[in-house]
Amino acid sequence: MFFLPRALPLRSLRLLLASLASLPMIMSTPPALAQELTLSEKVVNMERRLESEYETYFGEDLADVTQPPEEIAATLTRIGEETGTTPAVMWAIPREDHLHLVLITPNGEPIVRDLYDVPKELLDKTTEQFHRYISRPSGNAYMPAARQLYDWLIGTYEEEFLAPAGIDTLLVCAGDGLRGVALAALHDGEQFLVEKYSTTSIPAFNLIDTDYDPIEPGNLLAMGASEFSNLAPLPAVPVELSNIAWQLRTAGESDRNWQDRSLLNQNFTMENFNTLLGRQSYDIVHLATHAEFKPGKPENSYIQLWDQRLTLAQMNNLDWQLPELELLVLSACETAVGDSDAELGFAGLALRAGVKSAVASLWDVSDAGTLALMSEFYHHIPQSMTKAEALRQAQLNLLRDTAETIDISRLPKSVGATDIVQADTSLSHPFYWAGFSMISSPW
Fold it and tell me: What angle do CA 37, 38, 39 make, to 5 degrees?
């Protein structure tokens, strides 16, 4: 510490200050370390801002963001060893004048890329075009946008980082405007993304469950409705509910068997639903009914039961037996893609219910596509190390047109199976499989 005399001449003061400036800053932080700490803090702050978005939308505290990048990288390494996969997490945050990207691989440091040739206006236009064409059951007008989005999001890192590291699982944390992108259908010019990676959409890395427990034979609660008073019928639902239970029972080689309980139409009420949830724990809850993620508050988004709508705001009021519930599946929902609130509701589905993982669809997929994909998904769950990989295999089977033929003769003609008969001839178009998304933990 230096003390200046109270009446130091100006010339002497200048000389003293000059000599002090020339002294080495012994307590300063090395430049490289200072930069690393700053980058780490930026990633944590980005996670906190994402957490805040969901807390504001749902109106409640969710979790404390505590994992810095080095801990995230270590977590990826641990889970990779437990699952036999090589996961990476990527943040894609649109900003007014650029697209902000961050990638963390196992035991790696954050890799930041800012694409200033991708302002939000251009990104929004491209994602809107992609969704408009991908959610139609024919044609390939979606391809230019699919290739452009792939180039921006995946191509930025693929050759230099993803491929050398052998990454096969991508956890994508997207910001406003990108949460509704059907990642599986992005295209590099030769292959769809689903042909190279398992993917899951996460709200924030610090908001997902990072413990790995393989799904073992347990309890399935399958419920749904095929008839509605003011909504379109879902004629394949009865077959879907019976088929997914059969797939779980027959696909695995465990000594234990899956136990299932099913409720259909008039029995699919709020009272029955909550009673069954409170009576015992379930590993999987499957809801085959209309659901919509709509603009505005969580009260606007809902799952249609027989007697009423279960809103997103009411989800955590149910008697979920947590943490046993590994997976919540909504097999007939759609999202108002392009609306920030609707996309927050979709991406926060598992978060709101308190479940580890969820599967839902971005658009209203046909009965044929839903029936086939859910059949394949449940067939692969007992055979896959992760839920995200089970979904990927199901999507690949439809893409490659190798899915087992669904026996629609079991559907009575009176329920109107014409759509299923026509669409069942080919389900390879991404309309039928790309809209289904894994949400939150891929494990």
Answer: 90
